[in-house]
Design brief:
The protein is of the alpha/beta class. The chain is built from 14 helices and 20 strands. Helix 1 packs parallel to helix 12 and helix 12 runs parallel beside helix 14.
């Protein structure tokens, strides 16, 4: 691999493997390559540090909703997690420590955001350009950019005209003092239910605009005791037993989400009981109680969301936003409320991710064009028409019940097998067959049609066409099993330019 100082020249920096991103996906893939003796790789990172989602989302109260001992690499255990559910600072520190233990920083090109990746059919290599001059030529491109990496702003009339301070929760502005201000939060999803309780006491007035409520369960979080950490460190098999117990408990949710959706009524009873315990006012209860089946949207966990909404300076507004003005928000009934600071808690481009418009396969077709009717891939990893491109957390890989790190490790193992198959054929170009991808997705959509996610709500799991493009509709061990059942006939291997 050439030295980085030449990366801005027109002669590209040549490598075997180019990886996008330094979250769990990118770091995990790089470690796998190193383990296999494949050290001719470059990692592209748009920020100044590693961490992906857990670097960017540093808003107050940011934390994971999967227990720490499952939301971590199986090959990099940590017996020192401070809590049952890990916080953002702990997860970011974990990823930084793993990066340093595996000496990955020399492979990373920081502050380089992908501008274009184009498959050159003449050379059978990926030509990759970044915003700060990095120009790469790679045989294999592995996208670990993350499914929830691009913040999404709402389409509200006048949003561009707002003249006060404003930011997205994924780009939290720590320098801005909320004390004494009139603050409006748009959105009541996973980010909002974490940061709103943390900031609720600071503004003079905090308006929370809700489009639809979420089902919320009690968060069973607590610090780990020192004796528990001692056991996990010193008793053989204790940590693995805890991880296995967490895994099995989470997998049970699939029974209700996919196999027998009626089981989800048990979770709904728990969520309704949580509302009854924490919300005394009948009017507020009505506002925070969803009218769709539990699980149709992401189920959230929180102990302090409902109490925060009942603080005297906090208002939950459900009339809908009609217009945003330079210093105020007007609801759908014409009521205007002044605003000093606007915080968008409006999620991410889970579908139609902008990066899909920057990756071009055979015949110059972009991923965005191939996915105009909804994202799809074969096992979430390979896409017909895009040779030697591998996706980590691609279409229909996201979970509604368990740890994405498990899915990421599964895909990394699968990509390693595919790379071996390519190298056994002399470094042949690999591409999934069109009919294999089509048949897989037809079966996938049939299974999704009977799931709780298809029960009528509008969620970020769905493409605007209505197609559910985000979720894996089965147990995670079946996702791993499907990847292990490698069939070379599912792919086309070739060495000549076509």
């Amino acid at each position: 691999m050439s030295s980085p100082e030449h990366s801005g020249a027109e002669t590209p920096l040549s490598c075997e493997y180019a990886i996008i991103g330094t979250g769990f996906a990118g770091i995990g893939m790089a470690i796998a390559l190193k383990k296999q003796g494949r050290d001719d790789f470059v990692i592209i990172e748009r920020a100044k540090d590693v961490g992906g989602t857990w670097r960017d989302n540093h808003y107050p109260g940011a934390a994971c909703d999967v227990p720490s001992h499952l939301y971590s690499f199986s090959f990099e255990p940590n017996t020192e997690w401070s809590r049952v559910y890990p916080s953002q600072p702990e997860l970011h520190a974990y990823l930084r420590n793993v990066t340093d233990r595996w000496t990955l920083r020399p492979y990373i090109r920081f502050e380089q955001e992908l501008q274009e990746a184009r498959f050159d059919e003449a050379t059978q290599r990926w030509s990759i350009r970044c915003n700060n001059g990095l120009f790469l030529s790679a045989r294999v491109l592995i996208s670990g950019n993350g499914g929830l990496a691009e913040p999404k702003l709402p389409s509200i009339p006048g949003v561009e005209s707002f003249a006060g301070h404003h930011f997205h929760s994924a780009n939290w502005d720590d320098s801005y003092n909320l004390k004494g201000k009139r603050v409006a939060v748009i959105g009541t999803g996973a980010s909002a239910i974490q940061f709103v309780p943390e900031i609720a006491d600071k503004p003079d007035q905090l308006d929370v605009y809700q489009r639809s409520p979420n089902w919320i369960l009690r968060r069973g979080d607590r610090p780990y005791k020192n004796w528990e950490k001692w056991i996990l460190r010193n008793v053989p098999g204790a940590r693995l037993a805890l991880r296995a117990a967490i895994y099995c408990w989470n997998e049970m949710r699939v029974l209700g989400m996919v196999i027998h959706p009626s089981i989800m009524r048990l979770f709904e009873r728990g969520a309704l009981a949580h509302i009854r315990r924490q919300v005394a006012d009948p009017a507020l209860r009505e506002k925070v109680t969803p009218n769709y089946p539990i699980g149709c949207k992401r189920i959230l966990i929180s102990n302090d969301w409902y109490p925060a909404l009942q603080k005297p300076n906090v208002a939950l507004l459900t009339e809908g936003i009609g217009e945003i003005r330079p210093h105020s928000i007007v609801d759908s009934k014409g009521v205007e409320r002044p605003v000093d600071c606007l915080i968008f808690a409006t999620g991410f481009h889970a579908t139609e991710n902008p990066i899909a418009g920057r990756i071009f396969g055979r015949n110059g077709q972009s991923l965005a064009e191939a996915w105009r009717d909804g994202e799809e891939a074969y096992l979430g990893t390979t896409v017909h028409g895009f040779p030697n491109l591998f996706l980590i957390v691609g279409p229909n890989v996201t979970l509604g019940h368990s740890s994405m790190v498990y899915m990421i490790e599964t895909q990394i193992q699968a990509i390693s097998r595919l790379l071996n198959a390519s190298e056994e054929r002399g470094g042949a170009v690999l591409e999934v067959r069109d009919e294999v991808q089509a048949r897989f997705n037809e079966r996938l959509q049939e299974r999704l049609a009977g799931s709780v996610w298809a029960s009528g709500c509008n969620s970020w799991y769905q493409h605007r066409s209505g197609k559910i493009t985000q979720l894996w509709p089965d147990f995670t061990f079946r996702f791993r099993s499907a990847h292990r059942e490698f069939n070379a006939d599912d792919y086309r291997f070739y060495s000549d330019a076509k």
